[in-house]
Amino acid sequence: MLKKIKEATDFIKSKASKDVEIGVILGTGLGGLAEDINVEAAIPYEEIPHFPVSTVQGHSGKLIIGELSGKRVVAMQGRFHFYEGYTMQELTFPVRVMKFLGIEKLLVSNAAGGMHPDFEIGDIMIIDDHINLFPSNPLIGKNYDELGPRFPDMSVPYDLDIISTIESVAKKNNIKVQKGTYVGVSGPTFETPAEYGYMSRIGGDAVGMSTVPEVIVARHMNIPCFAFSIITDLGVDGKIVEVSHEEVQKVAQKSEKILTKLVQEVFKEL
């Protein structure tokens, strides 16, 4: 793994001249943030040694390096998912590479089904904790001490200082935000009413098919994380309706401009 990380890192560095500060993983319907990056390099995933290739509609598949709100960023426009058939190690490989590129913080975004009764479709939720219901963990297998400890602490998966900054920036810019626990599941099916109820009862506020593996790997390497969910459908009794990937994308795109503005303003404060 270390050899693969180094080869991918060296290739990316050959395309971009400066170090990066923040890693960004942009999910379903949220790739538009990349349009606001002052781009130095845009590298298709298939050109990067050992990178997986995204297969999901709405995930374009480029690594973008440049500047956003005065910060040097490396952004994944399109991410990888466990349900695509990748191993946990494969889908989190880009996070390892980002660390070797020099990132000091990681931003992750996703589309999610809301389970909190106060949530509405289109809400932005700051993730302050998560529950891992994936059938695996990206740290299973050989541990490389150069990357992180065998048993990493997860008492603060999402950085509290950054969350405080986000809340302050949202208030200043009159942007409505929710806050809650994200449940990570394998997919690719959307949830049954009983599954929504179960996940709500164990403490979940939103559910999706990503983010948790990437954050586990980032915390393994001691990278502070912050994350957002766009609530694209509701898993609340009496509000559950049939949902499709296309509908999820449409809702995410409607909220994209608001989240983009929030992220830009937060970056100025980091």
Could you list some keywords that capture this structure?
single chain, 270 residues, alpha/beta, Rossmann fold, 7 helices, 9 strands
Uncertain stretches of 5 or more adjacent residues: none
Name of the top-level CATH class = Alpha Beta
CATH fold assignment = Rossmann fold
Helix content: 25-40%
Number of strands: 9
User: Numbering strands along the chain, what is their spatial order in the largest sheet?
Assistant: 5-8-7-6-9
What is the 3D form?
A: globular
What's the pLDDT, averaged over the residues? 91
Tell me the CATH architecture. 3-Layer(aba) Sandwich
Distance between the termini: 31 Å
The class by helix and strand makeup works out as alpha/beta
Q: How many domains, as an integer?
A: 1
Biggest sheet details:
5 strands, mixed, barrel
Radius of gyration of CA atoms, rounded to a whole number: 17 Å
The CATH homologous superfamily name equals Nucleoside phosphorylase domain
- Beta-strand portion reads 15-25%
- The helix/strand series, from N terminus to C terminus, equals HEEEEHHEEHEHEHEH
Question: Could you give a short description of this structure?
Answer:
With 270 residues, this protein is of the alpha/beta class.
